[in-house]
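Recall that a protein's primary structure is simply its ordered list of amino acids. Everything else, from secondary elements to tertiary packing, is in principle encoded there. The following example makes that idea concrete.
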Amino acid sequence: MNQDNKTFEQSMQRLEQIVRAMERGDVALEESLKLFQEGTELVRSCGKLLDDAQLQVQKVMTAADGSPVMEEFEDA
């Protein structure tokens, strides 16, 4: 599955697997480098997903009476 098609939760789960494998210390150097690269890509992907979520949350505004008002989110 492409990193861009994974959900945040799937990416975090895979990151946890990578960290556990690397912490065990029984992974060969070449495989460790591949895992590190995959993990870096997952971190970047998760960061983007969180940034996008933050933008959506920022679109929530408060009306004059204090009630929440939601604006349309426009994808950049």
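Strands lie at 60-62, 68-70. Residues 29-58 form the longest helix (30 residues).
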